[in-house]
Amino acid sequence: MMDNLEDAYSRLSLTEEEAKEVVFEEGTPSEQAEEIALSLVSKLMTAGRFNARVMKNVLKNLWKPATGLLGRDMDSNLLVFQFFSPANRKFVLNEGPWAPSEFEFSTAHFWVEAYDVLGARQTKAFAEFLGSHVGTFVDCEDEQMFGADKAICFRADIDVWKPLRHGASVKMKDKTIWVRIKYVKVPTFCYGCGKLGHVLNSCNIVAKSELDLQYGAWLGASPLKTRRRNVEAKMEDEKRLFLALWGKGGNCAKQKQPICKAHDQSTSRG
């Protein structure tokens, strides 16, 4: 069929207008590179069907990019979003886990909160250690937040095909401690097998009737904004308490210090 069409076209006598070459102005490599740099490929982690058009509208309303956003279907469960501002793209990427780091979609960025971490261990080095144990360390919260409570928050690239981790057993010099972890904005996951993308009702690994479920809603952490707000409020309360006790006009500041007088025992009379 194709050969017949090619033969037919080869015998056509083109008009002057048809024979005239039309020049297509392709974008420069730099422009194309800029478009790619401002794009994100997303995958919906679900075994069920979904409406791509509705999903694109939902995400647009959720992200609210100031400079606009274009979305198009790429493949099954894949969507491509074109941003027009590096800041908008960075916001969406940083607020993951809707931004897997590879096209294989084997990993995704998660903000992770590690609990029962006492003050001496609340350092960036310990956050990097935990991040590399859970997945691949990416970043951590502002170090000024360390020490405000018994948790530290870091960002890690985590394998999305493995069950969520409950925590990490860390061997210290004098003892072994168990560090509980929670995930910020964790997507839908199974309370039976701990994997993302499905719920217990559709799990083919753990039976729905299983009573001793190893996973649950407790693996989800509060949004980062809530954590920051709570920590900042606690730090402000501690600051006010400190000023009340030791600052100008505080009760403790008004207490007179005892005065010690030295005596020359050699000249004292018996």
Topology as a string of helices (H) and strands (E): HHHEHEEHEHEEEEEHH
- Structurally, how many domains make up the residues? 2
User: What is the percent of helical residues?
Assistant: 25-40%
Distance between the termini: 131 Å
User: Please, what is the oligomeric state?
Assistant: single chain
Count all strands and give the number: 9
* Structural class category: alpha+beta
* Structural Rg: 31 Å
> What value does the average pLDDT take?
73
Please, how many helices? 8
Strand content: 15-25%
Q: Biggest β-sheet: count, sense, barrel? A: 6 strands, mixed
Dominant shape = extended
* Uncertain residue segments: 99-103, 256-270
Description:
Keywords: Metal-binding, Zinc, Zinc-finger. This protein has 270 residues and is of the alpha+beta class. The chain has two domains: 28-94, no CATH class; 110-243, no CATH class. The chain is 30% helix and 21% strand. It is built from eight helices and nine strands. It has helices at 2-10, 16-19, 29-37, 52-63, 86-94, 124-134, 224-246, 251-254; strands spanning 39-43, 69-75, 78-83, 107-115, 136-140, 151-159, 167-171, 176-184, 220-221. Strand 7 and strand 8 (176-184) form a beta hairpin.
Short structural description:
By secondary structure, the protein is α+β, with helices and mostly antiparallel strands. The protein has eight helices and nine strands.
